Amino acid sequence: MRAVLRLAWRDIRRAKGRSALIMAMIGLPVLVVSALLTGYATVLVSPREGVETSMGRADAIVRPSSVHGPVEQHPLSAMAFHLGLGNQPPEPWRPEEVAALLPPGHRALPYQVGTAEVRLPGGFETLDAVEVDLRDPLTDGMRTLVEGRLPAAAGEVAVTEAVLDLGVRLGDTVPVTRHARPATVVGVVEHPQRPTADEIVSLPGLLLLRPQKGEDLGFLVDTPAPVTWPEVQRLNRSGLGVLSRAVIMDPPDETSRSGYAPGYALGSALAVFMVVLEVVLLAGPAFTVGLRRRRDELATIAAQGASKRHLRMIVLADGLLLGGLGAIAGGLLGVVLALVGTPFVARLGTPLGPPEVPWAQVLAVVALGLVSGVCAAIAPAVQVGRESRSARRKAGKPVLGVVLIGLGLAATVLILQGDAIFGFGSWEWRALTDVLVVAASVVVVLGVIALMPWLVVRSGRAARRLPMVLRLPVRDASRHRVRTASAAAAVMAVTAAALAFAIGYQSNHRGNLANYRAGAPLGMMMVNGQHGVTTWERVRAEAEARLPGVGLVPGMVALDAEDRVITFSMPRTCSAGCKSYGWHGEELPMGDAALLRLFQGRDDPAAAAALSEGKAVIFDSGVIIDNGTITLNGYYRYDAIPDPVRVTLPAVRATAADPAQGGAVLPAAAVAAASGLKVAEARLYGMHVPADELRLERDLMAAGSADLFVEHGYPDPMAGQLWILFGSSLVVVLGGTLIATRLAAADWRQEQATMAAIGAGAGTHRGMLAGQAGFIALLGSVAGMFVGGVAGAALAISLTAKRSGSFELPETTTFVVPWGFTVAMVLGLPLLAALIAGVFTRRPRPALTRRAT
Amino acid sequence: MTLLTLESVSRTYGEVKALDGVDLTVAAGELVAVMGPSGSGKSTLLNLAGGLDRPSSGTVAVAGEDLARVRDLAALRRRSVGYVFQELNLIHSLTAVENVMLPRELDGVAARQARQEALAVLDEVGLREQAEAFPDELSGGQRQRVAIARALVGERRLVLADEPTGALDTATGDEILTLLRARADAGAAVLLVTHEPRYAAWADRVIFLRDGRIVDASLLESAR
Amino acid sequence: MSIRHGLLALLSRGPRYGYQLRAEFEACTGATWPLNIGQVYTTLSRAERDGLVEPGETDEQGRVVYRITEAGRAEVGRWFGTPVAPSDRPRDELVIKLAMAVAAHPDALSVIQAQRTATMRTMQELTRAKRQADGDLAHRLVLDSMIFHAEAELRWLDHCEKGLS
User: Fold this and answer.
1) Most Cβ neighbours (<10 Å): which of A599, A626, B186, C141?
2) Ranges for the ABC3 transporter permease C-terminal domain (chain A) (predicted)?
3) Mind listing the pLDDT tens digit for each residue in A32-90?
């Protein structure tokens, strides 16, 4: 065995270029994944690592939930969820109630987190806020004092460094919260794990408005004995959420419970499998070429008495060494890269934990790289055992290929009809369908890979009709079955994957788009005064000053006796599939004919007349108008008072400015009359997209507590997706094709001499290699197109079903084929590959006859 | 009509003088053999004759044209000169007829016409039946015959053969020589490099090379 | 000796006139071994004296037909059955000449080269003759033997040359 390894090592040193290439092909994926894993582990502050920062010396953080009844929580979080329906009014807790439930002999320190608005020299900023007495020894370790002193009295705060960068100095007094309470900065503190956080700390009662939604009271609790998981569950039953130090240090087994787990695991496994597959397909031909060069050496070894098994082992040892070296190098480099790089990345704002290397995971990745190397060497190793000429051997395993394709397709159909088997409404099944569809497509891909050699041979035969310039490359490529089929298969897999995801997600996105109902026409801005009339005049003045020439139309809100803002939203009943609303669909504009005109984008006398008669003008075609009236729910917009107000109004339909627009316009007077509330101006609307939305919002906030919303339409996270898919496919397709072409050039060298002797010009050599590159890429991309098309359709169907909750396909599914992307991938990439191969071939060495005598 | 003329041709590679002042002519209808041990410059001579290499001094002329003035030597090899090597003559991924068509197609001739010409030449060398076979499927002798056919397709008259019988047994070698002789009799000019006297004996003239120089020449006089 | 045996072999095919034997002999050996008629008759009368042939009728022109005897047939059989020993072959003038040249001549190399050219020419002639002789196998085989001989000579000459340089 040692001799075998020695031989392999010597051969590696001899063929440095090829060996380096293979090691790079195996090592790069390993490097990337190791770096990501290490970076993630380092950046991730596990609950255990963060325990001191989150609770200092306390044994637990206790948070009462919104009810006094049983709640459920994740062991590693203090957020507890009520198990019943979500619409009950919150039941505030009193500190004595909490103390009664905690074990005797405990000490509770009030502790709350949230956000607070602070008025800084540059404008209003929203900062993270913590209310706790940092002088108490129970909080040791939560923050470190860097400068000044800790807050000791009401009205004193400490801030972090980042806040100082915003223009605050030690000793300044800043207004905090909407009520502009004065706060004096007495000290600077540091968050041990998030040095760039912008945070403000005070004693309880200053920063946070109470009641915030769900975060009423909170306590740091010191108990005589550690709070165990059964103890936490007991407290849960009474309505308290508890994050216990003991549970963090020793979590119960159910922490990995997650509805996403099986799907996530399968998805990751598939991704890993595909990466390994690609590496094997790309590296395999390189091993074959090396094999051919060593044929004489191997023959000599065979003559010395080595059996076929020995020869096979030599080739596998090649794969083992190259794979091992590449993977180990990749893994080490990745880890080092991550450890060195994360502090820089952390500056961007992510938390930073202690440098941590997830050795088990990194080792697993390195092992995978090694396995890829060995797998890539298997096909050539098997070949070396078989001495027969490759010419007449059956090309690949076409039968297996067809079988696999059939299985994959059948499985896809089965999965999409799976609701019949698993029961419609099973949420876990629906969450899994897209991953399962991908898995079935992987089976189809494997089938096409098995079929590829056969396809390659067939194309060779079909090349008879082609002119010589094309015939020659295709024939030569099909003669060297292994490297051509390998590279074409690699291209096929990547093309299929890219197309499938592009089609699937674009289709889904289009479907989402179709479902989206904007509350306002595209490009409308809304200024919302948060305090009713009190500061509205200033806000309005500010807006008009900042936006000269923009036709701003005022809108109304309803106010209760205490001048708290109440707004109205669309009823929840929908006739055909509930559409989703953008954020502002929750508030219906209230105003006059000028407002109506703005929302309709035109003059509609009938609608204007209806509005002035006190009828609501409804744009959303999905809403049921019952007997000519409609019932609207009104909610407190800025305060957590649960009881909704109900108002019934006569209603008419009209069309809005945009086809995707829903919502309605309400008549202010009629609403006031029907609800008994008063109405006042607190809104401004205009068809204008501000150049700097953030700046404007800050100015408005400074003027008097208002926010800004602009209707941009359905957010398109997909814009970059196609580019990413194209980019990564480009790398793999070009890389794989060019590797195969390089091997082709090496194989062709001899015949190039013949070509020169019979009078081929210099261009023939370039044309030959360009032709091969193009052929390989085209064969792969066309095959990938078929697979990707089918997979993409299936993915679109399953994603739509997931969204819409039903498998009534395919009529309800939108299919979008990004044609530009498809053409670029299927035709453009092969052309590019051919071009690059043609441009970058080295001029053939001057061809002389074989013996120079 | 003289198809190949070498006048005082020398070729030096660095320190080594591969050819030294060689004079040689081959006329249409002639089979000229060049003999010599390895290192005598035989293959260099052949490379120079076909324009695969340029002489350090002296002139090489094919069909009257001085090669030094020819810009497109590749075209020369497509149209005027045909090479036959000891082995690895054929492109493995093309059939026999496609191999023979190759020089014509490289010259821009349409595939159909090239195929007709190729089939005709294959007929002359007796391999019409094997037109669609791949080189792997042919015997050594058959492969050489295809190579000869390829060297002759089109208007080509000058065949440069470098040990064409080297990899063949005696009987097959005789076949090849018979074919070359027949082509010479039909009007081609054949320059044959060999180290086997029995094959050189087929020639009208046998030239002996030693260390890059011609040492003697045996001319078969007397009318045919 | 071989002429006698050659004629006997030809007679074993059937009775022949002397001039016929001569023609057949030359045809068989491809005119590479010309005989004059006198040699033929001399050989025949010696053979007759030894009892290997016997004369037959005389035609109107005075020519005699010869017939092979049983003893003659036996002799032919014996001749065919006995391989030619090295000592029976004629001495090679070339070998002697070359040996002398190497020992005594100042420029042995040129002797070799001159001989090589001549032998080569012979070979060329033989090859051409062979091409033109579609005739019977015997003829071609004789030619082949001479070709092989010439080839061997050439090889030996190359060898000598290498030895000298």
Assistant:
1) A599
2) 271-386, 724-839
3) 778 777 877 776 666 677 777 888 888 888 888 767 777 777 777 666 655 544 455 66
- DSSP code at position B206: E
What residues does each domain of chain A span? 53-251, 398-514+717-845, 524-710
Dump pLDDT digits (tens) for B164-218.
Answer: 888 888 888 888 999 999 889 988 899 999 988 889 999 999 998 888 888 877 7
Task: Report CA torsion sign: A615, A619, A625, A631.
Answer: negative
Question: Which of A409, A414, A479, A394 lies closest to A447, judged by CA?
Answer: A409
**Contact of A459 with A775, CB cutoff 8 Å:** yes
pTM, two decimals, is 0.70
ipTM: 0.85
Q: Taking Cα atoms as reference points, which of B108, B75, B102, B76 lies closest to residue B89? A: B102
According to the 3-state scheme, what is the secondary structure of A133-202? CCCCHHHCCCCEEEEECCCCCCCEEEEEHHHHCCCCCCCCEEEECCCCEEEEEEEEEECCCCCCCCEEEE
Q: Do B91 and A468 touch (CB under 8 A)?
A: no
Give the residue with greater pLDDT, C7 vs A94. C7
Q: Which residue would you say has higher pLDDT here, A585 or B16? A: B16
Yes or no: say if A138 and A165 are a contact pair by the CB < 8 Å rule. Answer: no
Tokens describing residue A711: 């209707």
| pLDDT one-digit tens code per residue, A800-840 | 766 655 544 445 567 778 888 889 989 999 999 999 998 88
Q: Is B25 inside a domain boundary? A: yes
Q: Is the peptide bond before A650 cis (omega within 30 degrees of 0)?
A: no
**Which residues have a Cβ under 8 Å from the Cβ of A253 and sit 6 or more positions away?**
none
10 Å CB burial of residue A573 (0-12, 13-18, 19+) is exposed
| Interface contact A265, partner B, CB < 8 A | no
Residue with tokens 């019409």: B128
Tokens at B4, concatenated:
């190949």
Distances (CA, A) of A79 to A74, A76, A239, A242, A390: 8, 9, 11, 8, 66
Cα distance between residue C139 and residue C27, in whole Å: 7
DSSP B82-106: EEE-SS--S-TTS-HHHHHHHHHHH
Phi/psi of residue A189, nearest 5 degrees: -120, 165
How many domains does chain B fold into?
A: 1
Output the domain CATH number for residue B31: 3.40.50.300
Alpha-carbon distance of A125 to A222, in angstroms, equals: 34
Quote the domain boundaries for residue B31.
1-72+188-224
Cis peptide upstream of residue A810 (ω within 30 degrees of 0): yes
- For residue A430, the tally of other CB atoms under 10 A from its CB is 20
Residue B142 belongs to a domain:
no
Q: Which of B106, B136, B163 is the best mutation test for A, with the most CBs of A within 10 A?
A: B106
Q: How far, in Å, are A527, A699, A850 from residue A702 at the CA level?
A: 13, 5, 86
How many CB pairs (< 8 A) connect B and C?
50
CA proximity to C112, closest of C163, C40, C38: C163
Residue B175 in any domain: the answer is no
Choose from B195, B205, B213, B216 for mutation: most chain C CBs within 10 A: B216
A292/B contact by beta carbon, under 8 A: no
* Distances in whole angstroms, Cα of residue A421 to Cα of each of A413, A416, A431, A764, A796: 12, 10, 15, 60, 20
Contact B201 C123 (CB under 8 A): yes
Partners of B162 in beta bridges: B193
